[in-house]
Design a protein that fits this description.
It is a single chain. The chain is of the alpha+beta class. The protein has one domain: Roll (Hypothetical protein YwqG fold). It is built from six helices and 13 strands. Strands 1, 8, 9, 10, 11, 12 and 13 form a seven-stranded antiparallel β-sheet that branches. It has a four-stranded antiparallel β-sheet with strand order 2-5-6-7. Strands 3-4 form a two-stranded antiparallel sheet. A hairpin with a 2-residue loop joins β3 and β4. α2 packs antiparallel against α6.
Amino acid sequence: MSNSKSIRMNYLLESLDKISSDLSSIRSIIKSLQVEGRRLRNIYKEDQYFSDNLFMIEELECTTPTWLLVTHLADTKTADRRGSMLTGPLFTCEEYPWPLNDKEPMLSMMQIDLRVPSKLSGLIFGDGLLQIFINPDLLSWLIRVVPRDIVINSELTDIPEFGEFDFSLISTDWIGSNGKYPEIVGLSEPKISSAVDFKGEWIPPDLPEEIRLFLDKINKVAGNSWGSNRLFGTFDLIQYSPLERPPCLMCFDENSDLFQWGVDGSAQIFYEFDGDIPKFDLEWSA
């Protein structure tokens, strides 16, 4: 694999110019759902059925625009290691070497050019490469951001040699000269990402009509991003709720080809700002 510092076309960054930047319609729908949800929660807060069965309406507060990742399989041996990707092979150099755990190389999970979420959201995430390396058992990981000047000016270092894995929750299909990895080359048009879904719920016949109509409205936008890896968005209730966590930068649903988080599992990269500095964290559950 070449160690050249030549920079290829950034397909993901270029693709943003073709995506609608007008989120007014989506934000209007989200706001109307949230306002109506608050109104109904206030009216029916003493109603036993509502509190026992419709409590998830509160999670409409986490409904947000999302963009699904568009990927294509690229060859590891000709990889653009400075670009955005899932699994590997990620960018490394002398200043930011491939991380080790107990003298063994960690697996790479993802890499995203932070200029992309910055441009989509208007938030200042910076212009570096956000990377996550993880151990095969998912019990520990490393999150780091490689500054843009390092990405541009530093020579690539070689991908380490990996041993055999008895089990890995992250795909290792990219490893080796014949490996392939999902290069992120674009994004979908923005969608509504909602964790509130009553499509499969039994609705009693005596449910007030205004609640019934509201549930129908919720179901029209619910779950339209599930099963996809995505920028921003929210996630379904697992061992923790979106209400209990910071906003998501990225969401990764159970995908047998790439990630195996467990039954109905998912993982999220959360973000918060410490002043002007973005902080990132990874969490997963099933």
